[in-house]
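Entry 12.
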Amino acid sequence: MKHLLILFGFVCMFTAAGTAQEKAARKAARIEAFHELRGDLRSWFEQDVYPTAKIWHEQYDASLTSQDLADLQRLRAEAKRLREAVKADLKSLRITAESGSRSSMREELQDVREKYKDDVENLLERLKPIAKRSRTILRKLFDDNEDKIESWRSTARDIVGDWREEHDDLSMKGMFGRGDHQLPLLAGDGRKAAVRFILWDGTMPPAPETRMSAPQQRMPMNVSPAPSGNTATVSAMNVPDGQHMLQVFDMNGTLIRSTAVTSVSGKITQNIDLSGIPAGTYMLSVNTPAGRSTTNLVINK
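Predicted 3D structure (tokens):
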């Protein structure tokens, strides 16, 4: 009997190990398949949609008064910062969920929505006058090209549909919606599509991350002294080795200064020259192939 129990224990142990390996392999296959879809959608968008959408965007901007365009550029920068902030918070929630604390995930997700609700509503309220004054050109762009826009949406749905059929052996439920929500003119109808188009800055949107992908390692940054004067020392950890760009932006998203930095053994320690930059609050970021890390930079002279 004792020998049978020992044998049963070994069988369970190897079965569990095999199951874990199968799950890991399946998860890896799902991640690779999703990256394939993301690449197909973006390649198609860059080649067939973006050149025309960019022309429409330039026509729209050219129709605005100089004041409306300046105000809109500030709103676009603000919308981009909001998207990045929401993305960072959602990434933190994903890390929390993967560590096992799922019980409060839904409440935390609602907290993220509530956290930015007022900011989003305030931004849209300030956008309304510009949208109202430019509705003639906006309506013309959408009405004259309604068939083309709908054909693009249809193509995007076909790409996703064909991909699903090709990978019907993998469970993809809940990984994404239509797969085109980050691409201008393809997401939403009517008012939502118009708002996304107006707030689009004319560049290719960043590729969305699958919720299944492994969380990127955090790259904490520190600035000293704080507040800073004409110089500051920036240190960062967990940065991929190699040369990267350290950038200073104002609160409108305008690049103020850029410095090449080198990470050695995952660390950056860099003195930066802040002379000529007025006192105020800025954003300091290091941009790497693994992602972007951002912190506040306060200058007080």
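Annotation: The first strand starts at residue 221 and ends at 224. The mean pLDDT is 77.
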